[in-house]
Structure formats: structure tokens, C-alpha cells
Amino acid sequence: MSSPDLLIGVDVGTYSSKGVLVTLEGEVLRQATRPHGIQVPQHGHVEQDADGVWWADTASILRELTVGVTERVAGVACSAIGPTVLPLDVAGRPLRPGILYGVDTRAQAQIDALNAELGPDAILAHSHMALTSQATGPKIRWLREQEPEVWAQTRTLTTASAYLVYRLTGQHVLDHHTGAHAMPLYDPRTQAWTDTYAEAVLGDRNLDRLPRLAWSDERAGHVTAEAAAETGLRPSTPVAVGTVDALAEGLSVGAVQPGDLMVMYGSSTFFILTQTAPTPDPRVWSVGGAFAGQVNLAAGMSTTGSLTRWLADETARELPIDEAYAELFAQAAALPPGADGLLLLPYFSGERTPINDPQARGVLAGLTLSHTRAHLFRAALEGVGYGIRHNLEALRDLGADVRRLVAVGGGTRGRTWLQLVSDITGQPQEVPQVTVGASYGDAFLAGLAAGVLTRDDLDRWVKPGDPVVPNPAVKPEYDRLYALYRELYTQTKSVVHGLGQKG
């Protein structure tokens, strides 16, 4: 039998899971997708079922991709939404749905308590970032305080990508990028778990509940006989440690050199800047990279692609979703900058960076009877563009070296949104020829973990595409509107916070 010559990557996102079967040269042979939803049991609580969504999608995709080629698969890697919190019992079974990343804002009281007990300056010095809704430490404390019956049965605390690794290999392994968000349980200097502040989160100093830490391209283990029966994979197939979807997206487009900034246009917008040294700042997140020795500066908006999906669902429900998007994007593209006087804050599930305000809400200003759904849609696209500019300015304010913007994700399929963002930010963006997404980056990680690829092979996998160049003619107008966007948040913040309070 010839040596295995195919790789599989699977990514579980917020609204769908995707998988690819790829050759060692980076050619995509097969793709598979599984749509799914989220659970919002109450405002601020956003969850997904670990077995019914994460594992069910992954196993189904793997069965589809491996038909007729099981023996040729050299390795597999998974990424997923993150950082999430999933408690497992002693048998490795989920005790409740997974608590999602920064769009889940349930733990604000625990953030406030940790800041009061430990001090925000001490937390920043210890973790290289401030506590926000993206951090999993406060959510672990929320679980301990609000669901003591679940906590009493919890043997392992894991996250979405690590749970997939566990189901494939029987090993609890977590990548450093995701582990850094379990603050203040992770020490970025030693790149290891620490019990310094463990009692404030866990109630004790027992770190055995946490998975083993490793780098994304390392081998977590091998496919077990049980997992092989469920997935169609060959027993003993190497499995990579994997990572969160955003980091895999960055890898998929080659944004791995210092100064490379990946902008991921997904259900949320995520930014990952590759660095050689950390630049701690409370506005953003300083975390480990995919590979040993790398540091990432990360940031993220909460509702971007999910906002456009909401608008399509609510204003064009008579059309299938693909047709709704095509019509709304075409209509929005025909409108002038500023959507005829309409301005939108895209904070529909609080906001992450750089304002880190879980109580923020969407605001639509300037409505008149002449505005249409096309105006609403363009205002949403521009609102996201202003949010991206706000994040870019925050990165530069703290001294980060941003040399190149590389765009990836579902929002890059058309040029309308990309052009708006480049016009608003004044920054060109690169869009590689192949923008399959995180699953493509996962396939590359699978090759590294299996030992059939080296990092230098990424240059063969990623092929440059045409850049998106800003239009200087519209910059003055967008500069004016961006200033109003910043002022709109400041002027409406207290009103919005008041609306969110229960009477």
C-alpha cells in the first residue's frame, strides 16, 4: 500500500460546520458542510450542544469525506468556536451545553468580582490582558457559583476544539492560544497553568480539571477504534491539537509572519496579528500563536455576519437566504457612502474589542420614511466597517506593527463589503485565491502533526489573489461619518445601559 497522501480539516463554527479533504499539495478534493444553530436560553446566554452539534457535525462530515479514501488519510485536525466552556463528568460526558465565546456575556458579575478581589492591574500584569466576556475564567466561576450541582460532577473543563480531539483520541489536550483565554489560570510567561489565582476561579488550587497544554501543530494522539467506527477514519490516524476557528482561518491564508493581520469576516469579525513579543493592553487580547515561539495579538467584534444574517432573515424572509443576500448586497452597493444619512452601531450582542462593553446594544440613528431595507443593510455593512477601523486604530495606538491585512471568511465572497471596509479604513486588503476557511488551515495543521508537511509548505498552499484597494475619493466622507460613529456610542451609552436594566 502507498503512503497516506490526503489530509482532512474540520471546523465547527457558530452557524455551520465545514470540512475539506486536501492533497499534500493543497488541492481541495472534497468539501462538506453542516448547518446548525445556537441556543439563547435567556438574554446574554449563548450555548451549543457538544454532542448534538459539535461532535455530530464532525462525525458526519468525516464519514462523508472519507468514503473510499480511508486508508489514504494521513492526518486530521479540528478547529471550533472558542474560547468556550464545557464541563465533563468523570466518564467524559458533557454535563450541560457549551457556554460560547465573547458573545455570551453571562459572567459580568464574576468579572466584576474578580477585578475587585484581585485588582485589574494585577490581572493585566499576570495575564497580559484584561478580563472581558471573551475570558473563560469568569465563566468557569459562574458555573461554580450558579450551577453547583453541575460543578460537583465536573471532572474536566474543556473547550469546543479540545472536546473534538477528546472524542477522536480519548486525550484531553488544549492549544496554548485558547488556554491563554482561561485567565487568570494561564501564565503567558511560563506558558503553563498556574494556581496563583486558581482559588478565585475554581474554589481551590486543583488544576487537574484542566486539559494538557500543547501547540496547535503538535500531535494530540491517534484515532481510537471507537472514533474510527463513528467517523470512517482509520484507527491510529494522527490527530493534531488544533485550535479556535479564527487562528485556523489565519493559517489558511498564510497570515503567519510578524506584522500579518488576519481579518476574519464570519458571524463575528475576528482579528489576529502575528507578533514576536507580547504587547499587553486591556483593550485587546495577548495570546499564544499556533506555533511554539509565536505570540498573537487578538481582537474581536461580536455581531457582524450574524447581524447581516439577522437583517436578511427579518427584511427579506420571502427569499431563500442566498437570494436574499445577493439582492441586499446589490441594492446596498448602489447606495452612496453613509446610506443617505443612516448610521448603525453593530453592538447587537454587546461588544468585545476595543470597547469591551457587554451591555452595549445596537443603535440605528437617522431613520426617515424614505429609508428602505437596502439602506438598513448598507448601514450595517458600514457599521461593521467603522468597528473594524476602531480595532485597527486600537492596535496601532498600543504600538503594534501592522504591515499587511489578509481577509478571509464568508464575508469575502463578494467585493462589496471588502471594498466598503477598505474605503472606511483606508487600508488595502489581500484576499488569497483559495479562501475555503478554517478547515483548510486545519488540514495544514493535520499535515504538520502527521509529519507529512513542513511550515515551508504553506507557501505552496496559499496563492495570492487580487488586492482590494481603497477609493481615496470617499475617504473624507467616511472620516466624517467615522467620527459620528464614535460619538454615537459615547452619547447613547447611558441610555442603552438603562434600557438593558430590569425595572
Automatic annotation (TrEMBL):
Give UniProt keywords alphabetically.
Kinase, Transferase
Give the PROSITE patterns listed for this entry. Answer: FGGY_KINASES_2
Q: Which GO terms describe its molecular function?
A: kinase activity; phosphotransferase activity, alcohol group as acceptor
Q: Is Methyltransferase there in the keyword field?
A: no
Gene Ontology process terms (BP): carbohydrate metabolic process
Q: Which residues form the Carbohydrate kinase FGGY N-terminal domain?
A: 7-247
Residue intervals of the Carbohydrate kinase FGGY C-terminal domain: 262-450
As given in the record, the signal peptide range reads: none
Which family, according to UniProt?
Belongs to the FGGY kinase family.
Could you identify this protein by its name?
A: Sugar kinase
